[in-house]
Design goal:
Length: about 240
C-alpha cells in the first residue's frame, strides 16, 4: 500500500481539486469517479478502494499542497490531463490556468519540454500556442480552438469595442481590422431583460459597422460550418 505521505493526487482528480474545467462526459465515466493517485517509479502502486494507482516521475517542484492535500501543481495537472483530453478541452483548461494565474505561459511551455515522450505530450505541445488568458469561459475557448483548427485567423479575446470614444461592447472574439465579432452564447434560458440588452448591444455594434456572429454549443458539433460563417464574414468585410 502506498505511503500516504508520498502519494500525490494527479491528472483528472487534481484538475477537479483545482476547479479546472473538464468535459461533460468525464462525470459519466465510472473510472473517473475514483481518485487518481500517483506514486514515484519504484515505489508501491497506490492500491486502495476508490483510487486509481499510477506510477509517475514527480519532481518536487511538481507537487504542492492544496486544500490540505498533496496534489500536482496546476501546470503539471494540465500536462497530465493532456493524456485524457482532446485538444479543444485541453486548450479550455489551459486558458483557465492562465487566466487565474495558476501558471504562466512560460511554465506551461517548460512543462511540455520536460515531458518529452510522455503520453499526451503531443496534444499539450499543440495546445501551447493556442492558449489565451483573455478567454472568459470554456465555451469561448472551445469555439476559438475549433475556428483556428478550421483555418480561421486567430482572434483577439474579450476586446472592448469603442467607436468615436463611445464604448459599445466587450466582444468574446474579434477581428478588429475586418470589424467582425463572434459571440459565444452558452446559456439557453436567459431572462428576457438580459436577452433584450444583448440584442440592443448587438444592434448598436451592427449600426457602427461591425458584423456580429453568434454561435452556441450546438455549433461546436459542426465546426466546419461555424468556421465557414466566420471566413465568409472576414472575406466580405470592409477593413478599417
Amino acid at each position: 500500500m502506498a505511503s500516504q505521505a508520498s502519494a500525490v493526487i494527479a491528472d483528472i482528480s487534481a484538475a477537479a481539486l483545482w476547479d479546472l474545467p473538464l468535459p461533460p462526459w468525464i462525470g459519466l465515466d465510472p473510472s473517473a469517479q475514483s481518485i487518481s493517485v500517483a506514486q514515484a517509479p519504484g515505489g508501491p502502486r497506490p492500491e486502495r478502494p476508490g483510487t486509481r494507482g499510477r506510477r509517475l516521475r514527480m519532481p518536487a517542484s511538481h507537487v504542492v499542497e492544496h486544500r490540505g492535500l498533496r496534489v500536482t501543481s496546476p501546470a503539471r495537472t494540465w500536462l497530465d490531463c493532456a493524456e485524457h483530453l482532446p485538444l479543444p478541452y485541453l486548450v479550455a483548461m489551459g486558458d483557465v490556468v492562465l487566466r487565474r494565474r495558476l501558471a504562466t505561459p512560460t511554465e506551461l511551455a517548460a512543462m511540455v519540454r520536460w515531458a518529452r515522450r510522455r503520453r499526451g505530450v503531443v496534444t499539450a505541445r499543440q495546445a501551447v500556442p493556442l492558449l489565451d488568458p483573455g478567454a472568459e469561459s470554456p465555451g469561448e475557448s472551445l469555439a476559438r480552438c475549433a475556428l483556428i483548427q478550421c483555418g480561421v485567423p486567430r482572434p483577439q479575446c474579450n476586446v472592448d469595442i469603442v467607436v468615436k470614444g463611445e464604448w459599445l461592447a466587450r466582444a468574446d472574439m474579434a477581428w478588429i481590422a475586418q470589424r467582425v465579432i463572434v459571440e459565444y452564447d452558452g446559456i439557453v434560458h436567459l431572462p428576457e431583460d438580459q436577452r433584450r440588452r444583448d440584442w440592443v448591444r448587438r444592434n448598436r455594434l451592427q449600426g457602427a459597422g461591425w458584423m456580429v456572429i453568434v454561435v452556441t454549443a450546438s455549433d461546436l458539433q459542426r465546426p466546419e460550418r461555424m468556421a465557414g460563417w466566420v471566413k465568409a464574414a472576414l472575406a466580405h468585410a470592409q477593413p478599417r
